[in-house]
Amino acid sequence: xxxxxxxxxxxxxxxxxxxxxxxxxxxxxxxxxxxxxxxxxxxxxxxxxxxxxxxxxxxxxxxxxxxxxxxxxxxxxxxxxxxxxxxxxxxxxxxxxxxxxxxxxxxxxxxxxxxxxxxxxxxxxxxxxxxxxxxxxxxxxxxxxxxxxxxxxxxxxxxxxxxxxxxxxxxxxxxx
Amino acid sequence: xxxxxxxxxxxxxxxxxxxxxxxxxxxxxxxxxxxxxxxxxxxxxxxxxxxxxxxxxxxxxxxxxxxxxxxxxxxxxxxxxxxxxxxxxxxxxxxxxxxxxxxxxxxxxxxxxxxxxxxxxxxxxxxxxxxxxxxxxxxxxxxxxxxxxxxxxxxxxxxxxxxxxxxxxxxxxxxxxxxxxxxxxxxxxxxxxxxxxxxxxxxxxxxxxxxxxxxxxxxxxxxxxxxxxxxxxxxxxxxxxxxxxxxxxxxxxxxxxxxxxxxxxxxxxxxxxxxxxxxxxxxxxxxxxxxxxxxxxxxxxxxxxxxxxxxxxxxxxxxxxxxxxxxxxxxxxxxxxxxxxxxxxxxxxxxxxxxxxxxxxxxxxxxxxxxxxxxxxxxxxxxxxxxxxxxxxxxxxxxxxxxxxxxxxxxxxxxxxxxxxxxxxxxxxxxxxxxxxxxxxxxxxxxxxxxxxxxxxxxxxxxxxxxxxxxxxxxxxxxxxxxxxxxxxxxxxxxxxxxxxxxxxxxxxxxxxxxxxxxxxxxxxxxxxxxxxxxxxxxxxxxxxxxxxxxxxxxxxxxxxxxxxxxxxxxxxxxxxxxxxxxxxxxxxxxxxxxxxxxxxxxxxxxxxxxxxxxxxxxxxxxxxxxxxxxxxxxxxxxxxxxxxxxxxxxxxxxxxxxxxxxxxxxxxxxxxxxxxxxxxxxxxxxxxxxxxxxxxxxxxxxxxxxxxxxxxxxxxxxxxxxxxxxxxxxxxxxxxxxxxxxxxxxxxxxxxxxxxxxxxxxxxxxxxxxxxxxxxxxxxx
Lengths: 176, 782
What we know:
The complex is a heterodimer.
Chain A: H1 2-29, H2 39-54, H3 65-79, H4 83-96, H5 101-113, H6 117-130, H7 135-151, H8 155-166
Helix pairs in contact in A: 2-7, 3-4, 4-5, 5-6, 5-7, 6-7, 7-8
Chain B: H1 2-14, H2 18-60, E1 66-69, E2 74-75, H3 83-92, E3 96-97, E4 106-110, E5 113-118, E6 121-123, E7 126-128, E8 131-138, E9 141-147, E10 157-158, E11 163-167, E12 173-174, H4 185-195, H5 207-220, H6 230-238, H7 246-262, H8 265-275, E13 277-281, E14 284-287, H9 289-297, H10 306-315, H11 328-344, H12 350-357, H13 375-385, H14 391-396, E15 400-403, H15 407-426, E16 434-441, E17 447-451, H16 463-466, E18 469-470, H17 476-485, E19 495-498, E20 503-504, E21 510-511, E22 522-525, H18 526-531, H19 535-545, H20 547-556, E23 575-576, H21 578-589, E24 593-594, E25 600-604, E26 610-613, E27 619-620, H22 624-640, H23 646-650, E28 657-662, E29 668-674, E30 678-685, H24 696-708, E31 724-730, E32 744-750, H25 760-781
Parallel strand pairs in B: 1-15, 3-4, 12-14
Antiparallel strand pairs in B: 1-11, 2-10, 4-5, 5-8, 6-7, 8-9, 13-14, 15-25, 16-17, 16-30, 18-23, 19-22, 20-21, 24-27, 25-26, 28-29, 29-30, 31-32
């Protein structure tokens, strides 16, 4: 009888564990809602216009090869739609260079595709704050902020950010 | 009637005489009775045993301790890494120095080069194979990483993380589960050749084996052989009792038969491989070959050589009697016996067995530490895990828990605390002083190290996460931040009064704060008042802003401050833990991008499937331009304020920001400081909160310096974000000036808070310039 009660103790644990595992896996795999930008939108609304704004002028600091490798891995994961894995690579890159504007902006774009607009906004803002604040990356920063704000319902903020993106090439920010 | 008659006639035909008939009838009835009694008693007993053994068999599959891993060290060209740190990280991950890095788990140091044979490992984001590579170090950095033997350059490689703790089930057993398919074939067959040659065929009990054993024992005159099958041994391991009674043997046999009836041979063998007792490490029993392989050889099972497998198989007979660390000769004898048995059954050739028998035991000197190494940090891990998991799951589910701990940073923090307190004792402070320290990555909020006791090996009260103490002047930067956020009223050069003041408290009594030096300093700038930590100026400033704002600002920074909004809060009458203080300063150090401090990266199942990931998430603070200005002010605390002794203690270049804190009667000493990439908090005081004679700069700051002396210091980034900028101002008047005017200093301002008037020097220069242009233009006109 002693063993029996022991066993009964085991069962709820097992059940509980399974429930926890189930709930967690549900959390992890819950796909975001159907509306929102898909990959092409990030390409069409952030990257491509930023390339045009900057007219090919790059002002990135030289990148560490380890970071380059992780960015390439992240980009490959992003291509296959595995944004969680892409974010994971970018986090590893951030552990190496926590203040690299390119990594932060890439993370912002991944967040955008995961439809986490708040985080997309945050990462892009941080990238802008510690980044060059000029050139292509500046434009990507503001365009990401603009798209995020649009989805967050801040249309005037979105329009303002869009405007800022276009002046990334001809202003030197004051704080530098 | 007639039927009965018929029957009797039929019986009569069979039996010879009435006497015999009666005799048989008696036996028959007795037999029936005995069978009935036997079945009546035995059946429930068998059902009971069946229940016990199947419960155990099924239940054991779940009882796996969770394993807690440190962060994986990334190695790449340019990574800040000294040789000492690399060796520390290697040792922490269970690597051993050797003359050749010939096997995974070994490394070889030669001058500035370290060859590392990395083990294969399932990282939280993917499995990576074992790999041999060379790291060249120079000037505290990784100069190059190359793969061996080819020497091709590698961009990035990571060391598998150190296991820092295992969260055990109550029975204090440790296991590294293996699947039957992964077990080396020699182990599977060899074990049977030594322990149970008839395993494949018997039903759980081997009568021939028992006979053989009995014969051998009879011959020897004592018990030399056991006839137990592997199944019986498994049962014995489940219900470890040492009595050798017939009753126990009988139960074991029944349960063995039952197990075989329920489960297949491979399942039983797999359970055996994971269950058999093979050693003892302190309080923890080593069960199963997977664990034993790590325990004795520090290698995964599939890497073992035949002689090593033979040693483990030999230990089945008596793990403590043949303990290879304590009785190497006995163990060697037993191992070679097993090797001979392998040869006899054709598992090894005679020559191979002889060759293997000549090899040394190859057992590591000491087993790798498997208990918890960093209690204080693991406490934090448990606390953060508890938000998702039940304690019982942690103890039985075999979860793989990936954390943010950086072993080399943790070790340095521990050393800084222990040595720092010893130094304080030499300087006349109490030997009972306690301390806590937390260090985290500024940008990611990952906790890299945490110390909760002056003796880091002690697992008890964890001050870093549980000691709530008044934080004193450590709160002041938030008062000044609130002021800077009112850009129309305040900038760092705004003058405020540092004069005696008296405030009425809620109980009606008067409160008159005094300064640390018991003097008042008259009109001072915000910058001076903060860097020199003037109390009277701070309270006056705070009263203009409002105490409720301060409480809500603390909460905005991610810390729940459970306080009455009374003016004494401006001087730090708020009780917070070192971890909470770290959270507040992470926000400031990261320029307003708060990240909830985290100790967890991911949790996986025992099989390596991801259960949950803890991603980096930021919570932006309002008025980041004011935070940037505050950052500058905190570098001035170190440059010219209450922490100006710090650069001398650190004795290396780099701009550091920080704030000291001392509470009433010198009960608590705080120091919070940060570089560009790391933020750390240290606290020193007495557990019972009695006056300890400590101040922020005489105690906690020394501990902090002890830590950062050992770490690379990247200067705090003082670039201003949009909405703030640098201006040259006159340090006395606070007026706008020019760089080359006397008394010019460069100070950051929130947009709109800067001075509008200029100094005479600047005005004169402007006049000069204007006349220069006038002349120039005038000339051109002519």
